[in-house]
Design brief:
The protein is built from one helix and five strands. The chain has 75 residues and is α+β, with helices and mostly antiparallel strands. A five-stranded mixed beta sheet has the order 3-2-1-4-5, covered by helices on one side. The two termini are 15 Å apart.
Length: 75
Amino acid sequence: MSSGKNQYVVTRGDKWAVRGEGNERPTRVFDTQREAINFGRGIARNQESELRIQGRDSRFREAYSYGNDPYPPKG
């Protein structure tokens, strides 16, 4: 279970943005996806949440969890 807002790396025109879950406006906009991922990863680690990365085709291609996820999952 995460304790902070999940972070999303999303396209914004020809740029990339990091947006917190539930936020309408991006936290910050970058020229490259790599810059956005690095910034979003730092927030997700700090908040012990997830980072989800959108590809150019608008589909989410990767997700990283920095929360307190139990492994193996219970159930």
